[in-house]
Amino acid sequence: MKTLVVGTGLAGLAAAVTAAESEVVVYEAAGHAGGRCRSYYDATLDGIIDNGNHLVLSGNPAVQSFLKKIGARDALAGPERAEFSFVDLGSGARWQLRPNEGPLPWWIFSARRRVPGTTPLDYVRLGGLLAAGPAASVADLMPCQGPLWDKMMGPVLLAILNTDPKTGSARLAAAVLKETLAKGGRAYRPRIAHPNLGAAFIEPALKTLTDRHALVHFGQRLRRIIYDHDTILALEFPENTVPVAPEDRVVLAVPPWVAKDLVPGLRVPTEFRAIVNAHFKIAPPPEASKILGVIGGTAEWIFTFPDRISVTVSGADAIVDRDREDLACTLWGDVAKALGLPPVLPVWQIVKEKRATFAATPEQDALRPPAKTAWKNLVLAGDWTQTGLPATIEGALRSGFKAASLA
């Protein structure tokens, strides 16, 4: 029995690594692994950068499990406690959100730990999200205005959902909050891949597969799946057709628009949201926060590294088609103001992902298919399948684990 995995994004890699105790063959259309979670050498910046700034949290169980499987437990870096710094570019105000470690949220009673201008009652009202039904939006269940929304929940939910949080799925938002905010600070200490995404998630996974004698084929775009009633007979690639025995299993871990063309009658999300990332080749000030939330600017989150500063803008459909240099100037203006740096634009790079994630609305969430399909030897994997989470690293890895268990 073989497990054939198509796609080497995090979902495909998670499935392949989990199934690698048996015979595994992996096919990838691109010349590299990682999908939307990868690192590459950028000639403009003359260094290795990530295609995007992917934040995970200390309480993400699938992330921890995956890193353990690939021998990369120490691949994430971050503060010892949950601390989140913010700056309001309009007023110049700065503050830190400092939750306590345990699940009893006594920190909301401390004015020095909570968002300025909020009261404990504001946080209690977040509980309305936890009973969200599948059709409810965030705006249906909580107030989307006021200091708590403007200075914390709006920006955080936008980053989580990559969708206007007011119209976003309350159920998906609640799923993340239940696993993080509701469990206390120890569950949501921010973590960044160290030194980059490739070194943390991708290269160790490929090495694990090689060590277990799995075969990984790059430059192999799946053109067609050949079916017979309730089973798959073969996978057709440009240069060869791979037979699939009745006892073999296929894990299809490709983007939803690709899966829809390969699987008859498959229902998938049809709307997507963009993410824009900017990278600037300049060392940050020594006192700069590793992660800084920005209020009142185009930039939303600023990430600082020893040799560069990076910016992420989620739900970026309104700016994704703007001229790249114009974007760089706009985002650098926010960075310079937030970090007290000169306004002169340093060497820069803009990375656009027009279809970064599915739109995390109730309507699009309802279109996500389960991992199981109508064919006995075909399962799906990807953050766009029914993971119960938004399109996140945690969701992608969970989908890969589930696909491997079904296969």
Quick structural summary:
With 407 residues, the chain is α/β, with parallel strands linked by helices. Helix content is 27%, strand content 24%.
How does this structure look, described?
The protein is α/β, with parallel strands linked by helices and 407 residues long. It folds into three domains: 2-75 and 193-269 and 361-406, FAD/NAD(P)-binding domain, CATH 3.50.50; 84-188, no CATH class; 272-358, Alpha-Beta Complex (Polyamine Oxidase, Chain A, domain 2). The protein is built from eleven helices and 20 strands. It has helices at residues 10-19, 61-69, 120-124, 138-141, 147-161, 170-179, 197-211, 256-262, 324-339, 362-365, 393-406, and strands at residues 2-6, 23-27, 39-42, 47-50, 55-57, 76-77, 84-88, 94-97, 190-193, 215-217, 224-228, 231-236, 241-243, 249-252, 272-280, 291-295, 301-305, 308-313, 348-358, 378-380. The strands form five sheets. Strands 8-7-16-17-18-15-19 form a seven-stranded mixed beta sheet, with helices on both faces. Helix 1 (10-19) runs parallel beside helix 11. 50% of the residues are buried.
User: Uncertain runs with pLDDT below 50, 5 residues or more?
Assistant: none
The tally of beta strands, per DSSP, is 20
Structural class: alpha/beta
Distance between the termini: 10 Å
**Which fold name is given in CATH as the topology of the largest domain?**
FAD/NAD(P)-binding domain
Average residue pLDDT: 97
* CATH architecture label of the largest domain: 3-Layer(bba) Sandwich
Q: Biggest sheet, strands in spatial order?
A: 8-7-16-17-18-15-19
Tally of DSSP helical segments: 11
State the major sheet.
7 strands, mixed
